[in-house]
Design brief:
Pfam families: HpcH_HpaI (PF03328). Keywords: Lyase, Metal-binding. GO terms for molecular function: aldehyde-lyase activity; metal ion binding. InterPro entries: Aldolase/citrate-lyase_domain, HpcH-HpaI_aldolase, Pyrv/PenolPyrv_kinase-like_dom, Pyrv_kinase-like_dom_sf. This is Aldolase/citrate lyase family protein. By secondary structure, the chain is of the alpha/beta class. It is built from twelve helices and eight strands. It has an eight-stranded parallel barrel with strand order 1-2-3-4-5-6-7-8, surrounded by eight helices. Strand 3, helix 4 and strand 4 form a beta-alpha-beta unit. The protein starts with 7 loop residues before the first helix and ends in a 10-residue tail after the last helix.
Length: about 270
C-alpha cells in the first residue's frame, strides 16, 4: 500500500536545521522554477498578484515545481473561489491571500480552500491534484484537507493586532507579514518603530496561536538571521527576477573592473 503523500511545504517547516526557504516567482517561464529547484529552495510562491503570470502559466509552473521537489504555493490577487479551485486542481500545495485583515476574511478564504464540511471547494479528482483520476478519492480529499496550506498575509495594522485571532481560525495554516504594504498603510517606512512594533505583535500573536509565520526578506545571510531572530519560521529570499538582475549586475561590475592592458588601444 502506498504511503500517504505529504506536503513538501509542511515538511520544510519541520526541518531541524533552520527556517524553510522560499522565493517569489514573477517570471512566466518554467526555467525560472527549474533554476530555483537546482539552487535548493524548499518552496516557491507563484505570484499572481504582482506579475503578469496567468492561470495557464501558473499551471505549468506548479507542475514543474512539484516534479522537482519544490513546494508550489500560489499567491492569488484577491479571494475568488473559482481561481482557488483551478489553482488547487492544478496541483498547488497551498494558497496565499494578500490583505487578510479580519477573522471574517480568513474564514471566507478557508471556505474556498477546504472541502466540506470545513469549506465549499468542489471535487475535481480527475485533475492533476487527483493524478488525473488515478488517485484514490479518499486520498485526494485527505490531501486537500490535511496537507494543502492556506497562508494569510498580514499587511495592515488591524491585521497585525488581530494576528492571533486570524491564525487561530480553523483552516488557516500560517501567516506571512507583508512589511511593505503594512508600512505603506501607515504612511511610513518599514523601519519606523510603530511598524516594527506591529510586526512584533503579529509574530507574537501567531506564535501564541501555534502557527508558523513568515516574511519576505532579502537574499543574504544577514536577512535570514534577522528573520530567525525575530521569530519567523519561514522566509522568502527575494524573487526570481531580482535574483537574476542582481547576478547580472554583479557579472557586469566584475567585467568592468578589469581594465585594458597598458598601451593597448582600440
Amino acid at each position: 500500500m502506498t504511503a500517504p503523500r505529504r506536503s513538501l511545504f509542511r515538511a520544510a517547516l519541520a526541518r531541524p536545521d533552520g527556517p524553510a526557504l522560499g522565493t517569489w516567482v514573477k517570471l512566466p517561464v518554467v526555467e525560472s522554477v527549474e533554476l530555483i529547484a537546482l539552487a535548493g529552495f524548499d518552496f516557491v510562491v507563484i505570484d499572481l498578484e504582482h506579475s503578469p503570470i496567468d492561470l495557464e502559466t501558473a499551471y505549468r509552473l506548479i507542475g514543474t515545481a512539484s516534479h522537482l521537489g519544490v513546494a508550489p504555493i500560489v499567491r492569488i490577487p484577491a479571494l475568488d473561489a473559482g481561481v482557488v479551485q483551478r489553482v488547487l486542481d492544478s496541483g498547488a500545495e497551498g494558497i496565499m491571500l494578500p490583505h487578510v485583515d479580519t477573522v471574517a476574511e480568513a474564514e471566507a478564504a478557508v471556505r474556498a480552500v477546504r472541502f466540506p464540511p470545513l469549506g465549499t471547494r468542489g471535487v475535481g479528482a480527475t485533475s492533476r491534484a487527483g493524478a488525473w483520476g488515478a488517485l484514490d478519492r479518499a486520498e485526494y480529499l485527505r490531501f486537500g484537507q490535511e496537507e494543502v496550506v492556506f497562508i494569510a498575509q498580514v499587511e495592515s495594522a488591524d491585521a497585525a493586532r488581530s494576528a492571533k485571532e486570524i491564525a487561530s481560525v480553523d483552516g488557516v495554516d500560517a501567516l506571512l507579514v507583508g512589511a511593505a504594504d503594512l508600512s505603506t498603510s501607515e504612511s511610513t517606512t518599514e523601519g519606523d518603530p510603530r511598524v516594527v512594533e506591529l510586526i512584533a505583535l503579529a509574530i507574537a500573536g501567531c506564535t501564541a496561536a501555534g502557527k508558523p509565520i513568515g516574511n519576505a526578506g532579502g537574499a543574504t545571510e544577514q536577512s535570514v538571521r534577522a528573520a530567525v531572530e525575530a521569530g519567523y519560521t519561514f522566509t522568502m529570499l527575494s524573487n526570481d527576477a531580482s535574483l537574476l538582475g542582481a547576478a547580472a549586475a554583479a557579472a557586469v561590475r566584475a567585467g568592468r573592473s578589469v581594465g585594458r592592458p597598458a598601451g593597448e588601444h582600440r
